[in-house]
Amino acid sequence: MTSLRCIECGAHARVLSGEVSCARCGGLLDPVLDLRRLARTRAATWRALAARRAVGIDEVDRSGVWAFREWVLPELSAKDIVTLGEGRTPLSRGPALAPRVGCWIKQCGQQPTGSFKDLGMTVLVSAARAMARRRRVDALVCASTGDTSAALAAYGARGGLPVVVLLPRGKVSPAQLLQPLAHGARVVELDGDFDACMRVVRALGERPGIVLANSKNPLRLLGQATVAYEIARDLGWRAPDVVVVPSGNLGNVAALYAGFSLLRALKLVDRLPRLVAAQVAAADPLHRARASGYARLEPVRAGETLATAIRIGDPVSFPRARRALIESRGTTTSADEGAVQEAMAALDAHGLLSCPQTGAAFAGARALAAAGEIGAKETVVVVATASGLKFTEAKAAIVRQRPLRAAASLPAVLEALALDGAP
To answer: Are the C-beta atoms of 326 and 266 separated by less than 8 Å?
Structure first.
């Protein structure tokens, strides 16, 4: 029902083979669902099934990923599914992008480990557990800027599979470093950036018994595509006009494209939204590639940025992202650090405690609205990818307000607050 297909030469591989690149040409592999089989079910039936599972009590149904299991990995046995109750995140009204231009915030940071990475990891780890019944699986391995390692460690612990994580020393927040350690992963800090960690992990992934868990692994896309399903469902089974997503290694924009494409094929939505890959000026190789029509991507040396989770200069999923942007008539943005800080402050003031990556996406959406590329009547969704609580050090640098001090008495408190009635 599902296979892997090379996006370069079209060669196929088995979905539970453990392969992450094409054996023939080395290209990226994409998961391919049996659309002919899925299309036998009417759109109304799919909608009714989603509604029924939304109020179910079964653990698998309660997962926002596995509630769509026919569109994720239908051949996987329920006994192999590893879930922590991921998905089902709110779609909340956000602050205005410009006068009379509103937006929605898809709060994917409200996950078990605090980021959208849980959506892909529940699928990858579940598949790895199924693989382990047939062949040797010694460890699940990833390079990470923080969020991937937390998700992999948590799901690996729940699934009983060993996890190894490579992190760039000093480039992740204390909260992000603590998470994989707490879940029992073996963590190695490398003297280098994420791209250096990724080079080592790629070499590790070629060893027998090692499962590569970064977004190069196509299985993760199946879980991350469910963000598109939830957005469409929560908008009354309509596609928004624009979806803006923080973009580092570029798997997320590719997953959204795959998700909305499936919905269109099943006649649950009538079109694709314009996808926007939002980057930061310190690490924006995809944005720079736009000038050539995405014909090529020149890796950059990523600079310092608050948005550490997208501080990636040589993204693995560029070919996937290129297709997503071209076919959705999408675009890219690049925000400087000042714009990221202002965007974070605007979201925070609206009650939406944001991470720096979401700040980059909201800043990009603002820039498009200011340039007239987003209209007042368009439905815009900005994907919030992680909890702001994972980035307290970055937020402390931009929060200007500090606690007031007063003696423990009503007059002293009134005086500190400068309220009427103070002596």
So the answer is: no
6 close to 323: Cβ distance less than 8 angstroms:
no
Residue showing tokens 């980035």: 391
The CATH architecture of the domain made up of 91-114+220-396 is: 3-Layer(aba) Sandwich (3.40)
**For the purposes of burial, counting CB atoms within 10 Å of the CB of 330, is it exposed (0-12), middle (13-18) or buried (19 or more)?**
buried
CA distance 384 to 91: 10
Which are the contacts of 408, defined by CB distance < 8 A and separation ≥ 6?
A: none
Strands 12-14 and 2-6: antiparallel
pLDDT, tens digit, for every residue of 48-57?
999 999 998 9
383's torsion region: left (phi>0), alpha (psi -120 to 50) or beta? beta
Q: Strand 380-384 and strand 12-14: pairing?
A: unpaired
DSSP letter for each residue of 177-244:
HHHHHHTT-EEEEESS-HHHHHHHHHHHTTSTTEEE-STTSTHHHHHHTHHHHHHHHHTTS---SEEE
SS (H, E, C) 15-51: CCCCCCECCCCCCEEEEEECHHHHCCCCHHHHHHHHH
For residues 149 and 167, the answer to whether their CB atoms sit within 8 Å is: yes
Mean pLDDT, 10 residues at a time, the chain of 423 residues: 93 93 94 96 97 92 97 95 97 96 97 96 97 93 90 97 94 88 95 90 90 93 98 98 97 97 98 98 97 95 93 94 97 97 95 96 98 96 95 81 91 85 48
Pull the structure tokens for residue 353.
Answer: 């405690």
pTM equals: 0.94
* Cα dihedral 138, 140, 142, 146 sign: negative
Query: What is the C-alpha separation between 278 and 286, in angstroms, rounded?
Result: 9
The secondary structure of 60-119 as a DSSP string is HHHSTTGGGGGGT-TTS-GGG---SS-----EEE---SBTTB--EEEETT-STTSBTHHH
Structural domain boundaries in the chain: 91-114+220-396
Report pLDDT for 176.
Answer: 84
3-state secondary structure of 411: helix
